[in-house]
Amino acid sequence: MHTTVYDLSREYDAGIDAAAKAIAGGKLVIFPTETVYGIGADASSASAVTKIFAAKGRPADNPLIVHIAKMTQVYEIAQDISPLAEKLMQAFWPGPFTVVLHSKGNLPHAISAGLTTVAVRMPSAKVAQDLILHSGCMIAAPSANKSGKPSGTGIMHVLQDFENEVPIILDGGDTQVGLESTVCDATGEVPVLLRPGAITAEMIQKVAGSVKISPAVQQALDENTPALSPGMKYMHYAPEAKVVVVKGEKPFLANAIKAMYDSSEKAGFTAEILCLFQSLLCYENRNAQSLGDTVEEEAHALFDALRKADAAKVDVVFFEAVEESGLGLAVMNRILRAAGFLVVDAMKEGDIDAYIAGLHR
Ligand code: TXA
Ligand code: MG
Question: Is the bond preceding 94 in cis, omega lying within 30 degrees of 0?
């Protein structure tokens, strides 16, 4: 299949027009949102939605987010919407916020993957809004990446994963946030944060008065714990490289990373360090990459850095842990998944020794 790429900075109207026709005709379109790129289809068409799962290689039990552009659309697909849910939608839409609501059950089965709920988001990106409005469709769209790969945040990522597999790609440059939307279950009395994002737990708490953070956000789920959000149980955002998250106070952190980096290289592995700009100097002539000055910049750069590590055939990535608050909770949630929850505590010599001993096994 030939892919037509529209550069939105030069051919916005033509791109939206062609993409809207494709969506209305039951075809797939890749488009940018303020979070990550999405691979979208008409949410009312079972056959169109099936194509998304096929293109991504996505397990059938992982449900999709329905994207809308006007408030009336949420009432077409969700029911028993509580005052709490209304408050959250008012506060955070349009924006990087997905709310899980009771479904009316009138969408193709595959979207909710058998659940009685539906995840809905009103994106703020103009492209996404225009695509929804011009196509006349609500758009089901997961992140545009092959299942298990980091989400696509730039045109090169989506071309790498989907060139000649979808008819239309809208190139809107790099996405603003760089991490997927916050997913929040608002079917109960207290909102439950299922996936952290740019709308932070603190922001939800402020609006709702309280918030529960699903245990799956910060820990590995054991086999027997049912996942509230099916996406949580998959080893997501997985690069080819092994990722090691290293936490601890400043001087210990850098020293631990240096010791593990040097031992890895000595054992014949190609290593890389991902950190904030202010840490770069500590690593001297080692291969350390800055993800920016702030956690916002880090979120924006993270997925690209993981893809680049793979392209450079890096074997092991050491990631400096950040504080799990604000957007830092989302950054840590994604990197912990990429690491398969492998965390080394720089304050514990045993952890470092165990890592180094493991290199020779
Ligand atoms: O920023 C985003 O949310 C992007 C852009 C394209 O909008 N989309 C995205 O979709 O990240 P996806 O499919 O990669 O992630 C959707 C997440 C998954 O973890 C899924 O399990 C969860 O939302 N989800 C979807 N429907 C759900 C439901 N009814 N209940 C609980 N979780 C749900
Ligand atoms: Mg995804």
Answer: yes
